[in-house]
Specification:
The structure is a single chain. By secondary structure, this protein is α+β, with helices and mostly antiparallel strands. Helix content is about 50%, strand content about 15%. The two termini are about 30 Å apart. Helix 8 runs antiparallel to helix 9.
Length: about 300
């Protein structure tokens, strides 16, 4: 097994033909350094809480027409008094029975997250954005693939929105045996496997790196009949673990084979772009030589 692969400190390279405003530059840089294999469109709970003027844990009292009466039991942010009754018209509340719990956010419009006692505790304790990612992400690592969908989705989003070097700092605190199970579990959403593949490649412990490489190799070599969401992250993780040997394997499997799926080839190109920016063990000249045959494939 290859030794641990370090990560380059990322400096975004913006090759654009039009001038960019300062705000656009900052946005482009922020998007560039986040996990390139993760698809997250909705803000995380911490981001929503930061933007809200009030956040509270409330209980559904009852419904009247389209309105739901909620009683606030605990203010998580803001000064609204406990036991306030709120009349809200929200689709997230309409299906909840009296006695059900929800986290309510005001800012400026109201929104709600239905919760149980377990997920309510998760949201109440979620660390704020003012802490560094190295202090925040270990909290969310414990909740990846949690049984409650809202919790699992939010924990994934926290990692997906973090910079790659920040994710690398805390990869050792992710439960690697569970991560390996998620990578081969057909019930785990494909887009999340892009993150899990990257995390597998960033594992610091030698035993985990060996086991992770075996699992990623299994995922890569298992035939698939359709588009594989997150496959680019799986390939990137394998490159981080296997180095030049991994590049040779993937080149033979996806570039040298004219029958290889064009979608899988594009996933490999995304993984190689990532590696050029972040990886250190494979010379860029070797990567360039590996992809040069694709110039003869018009569909690529």
């Amino acid at each position: 097994m290859e030794g641990r692969v370090g990560l380059r400190v990322f400096t975004p390279s913006l090759r654009l033909s039009v001038p960019l405003s300062a705000a656009a530059l900052l946005l482009a840089a922020a998007l560039a350094i986040a996990c390139p294999f993760c698809k997250v469109q909705e803000p995380t709970f911490a981001e929503r809480r930061e933007a809200a003027t009030f956040v509270g844990l409330a209980e559904v009292v009852g419904h009247q027409g389209e309105q739901t009466t909620c009683r606030v039991h605990q203010a998580l942010k803001g000064t609204r008094a406990s036991a306030d009754d709120l009349e809200l018209r929200l689709a997230e509340l309409a299906a909840l029975r009296p006695g059900a719990l929800a986290v309510l956010l005001e800012g400026p419009a109201w929104s709600a997250i239905p919760v149980t006692e377990i997920s309510a505790a998760y949201f109440a304790r979620a660390p704020g954005l003012r802490l560094p990612a190295s202090a925040r992400l270990p909290y969310f690592a414990r909740y990846l693939e949690h049984a409650e969908p809202a919790v699992a989705a939010d924990a994934y989003a926290e990692f997906a929105r973090a910079a790659v070097d920040e994710v690398a700092q805390v990869a050792g605190q992710v439960p690697m045996p569970a991560l390996r199970r998620w990578l081969v579990d057909p019930d785990v959403p494909g887009p999340r496997k892009g993150l899990y593949g990257l995390l597998a490649g960033l594992a610091p412990a030698a035993d985990d790196r060996t086991a992770n490489a075996e699992v990623l190799h299994t995922v890569i070599t298992t035939p698939a009949s359709d588009f594989r969401a997150g496959f680019d992250g799986v390939l990137a993780g394998y490159l981080l673990l296997a180095g030049e040997r991994g590049l040779d394997e993937l080149t033979a499997r996806l570039i040298a084979d004219p029958e290889a799926s064009p979608a899988d080839v594009r996933h490999l190109l995304a993984a190689l772009r990532f590696y050029v920016e972040f990886g250190t063990a494979i010379p860029t000249t070797r990567i360039a030589a590996a992809v040069r045959p694709l110039l003869a494939r018009p569909e690529i």
